[in-house]
């Protein structure tokens, strides 16, 4: 599903929770609210791009599909922390910059292989590759 750059607004329909997309790109719209229904442990989604919207949900509560290899959530209002389960995923790309995330970046998996630009401009995110937590 490719719907980027369309000036879409409002909330993502909850009916999308029942669909197992290989790729979903809703980037560069004006979508708001909760997008956590896009994810799920029983799905086979590989690529999710929800960047540059107005989405607000708790990343800590999201269950990610094991098949996920690319996650772009930059420039939203996503809060919470990065769940430790993300260390078990084989990411080729990940960007959670420009959100409201807090807490320590879990150590392990691919998470430290991404540079500071994948994480910066969050409320209080810390740990490698960002500065140490106080």
TrEMBL record:
Q: Where does this polypeptide localize? A: Cell envelope
The main place the protein resides is other
Against InterPro entries, the record matches this protein to: Leu-rich_rpt, LRR_dom_sf, PGIP
The record ties this protein, via Pfam families, to:
LRR_1 (PF00560)
PANTHER family per the UniProt record, alphabetical: POLYGALACTURONASE INHIBITOR 1, POLYGALACTURONASE INHIBITOR 1-RELATED
Supply the name of the protein: Polygalacturonase inhibitor-like
Source species = Momordica charantia
């Amino acid at each position: 599903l490719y719907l980027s750059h369309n000036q879409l607004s409002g909330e993502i329909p909850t009916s999308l929770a029942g669909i197992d997309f290989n790729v979903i790109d809703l980037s560069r719209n004006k979508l708001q609210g909760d997008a956590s229904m896009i994810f799920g442990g029983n799905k086979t989604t590989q690529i999710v791009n929800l960047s540059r919207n107005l989405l607000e949900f708790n990343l800590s509560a999201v269950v990610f599909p094991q098949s996920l290899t690319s996650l772009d959530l930059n420039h939203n209002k996503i809060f919470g922390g990065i769940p430790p389960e993300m260390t078990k995923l084989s990411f080729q790309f990940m960007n959670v910059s420009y959100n409201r995330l807090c807490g320590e970046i879990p150590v392990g998996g691919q998470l430290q292989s991404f540079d500071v630009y994948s994480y910066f401009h969050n409320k209080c995110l810390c740990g490698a590759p960002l500065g140490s937590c106080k």
